[in-house]
Amino acid sequence: MPSRLRISMSYNIPRRSWLISITYLLISSTVWVVQAGNRQEYQYRDDAIENKLICAGKLADYAACQCDPSAGEYSCINAQFVDANVFLDIATNYKYIKSVTFHGNNFQDLTSTPLFGSDSQSGLIKLNLSANYIVNLNSNALRNMPNLQVLDISNNEIVFRPRDVDFLTHTPHLTQLYMRRAFTVTINRTQQFDLMLEMFRQAKLEHLQVLDLSYNFIHNVPFEIACPFPALRTLDLRQNFLKNFIVNETCIKEVNTINLSRNQFYVIPSDFRALADKAQPETFLLRNQFYCDCNSKDFITWLRSTKSVREKNSLVCDRASPKMYVGARIAEVPLGKLTCDEPLFTSQSATPYAYFSIITLLVYLNF
Question: Looking at the record's lineage, which domain of life comes first (predicted)?
Fold first, then answer.
């Protein structure tokens, strides 16, 4: 008996099954080898992507920094830099610079000389300097960025100084300026806003379309706030302490979004109503803690008829007399049933905003 047949008989495995088993084993091995090769290829590909984003120069020592020279994008997030001269390292090692983000560092002062050195950075379009504990802007920091369009200096501790009011004069093509929680100094607020407005005037930002001043503890908006920006379309004043909004009506005729949500509009004052009626339809966002009682009929009647308030049908009574109308939509609450039996304006009225101040402060201090 041939040996091959003897082996098949001894294990009681039919010859056909034995051939199928060998074939399956060979196919499985081949598939495993191919998959292993693919996994190795993917690993090499991932390594290539990581290597591509490694920065040159001094920034190469920081994992928080990523550089993509092909796209002209450079960022250092939470790298804890304390010296603003690190921007020079980008200009030294890269010629094409389009977008730069330095967020979550510890710059107290911007440099008194241009951030990127003496060479013009005509390709730089976006600069994000948010959350860096910046106090002093320095008038020359933005020099040599003639085509900058987007500037974000939010979440800082900026103190405006008379010698720095020309800070924005070097960036005439700005279209978006973000200053959320940018200045938290509570003393000399009037002087600070006067200096900010003077900075806006001197900048001559004729192309600015978006100005974000939310989360800045603002109690009163400068009357000429929108006047330096003829192309302004969006003014964001969310989460401040405004109880009224009186500005130069001529300067907001072309503005189509003014966000006044989460301020202290318990009612809508008559002078604001007169201003709003001259604005474009659906210009104002007014999500606030409105009070509805027998003294609220005038503003409720106006709110129902005006076309200037966006999403007005979703606004509700945060407090009401009688209490049964708390949470009711202002557009639907029956005016004839509103009373003045419940005290709405009490010492507790400021409680939500006191909580907001504490929470905002803790977030700002990174608690």
Answer: Eukaryota
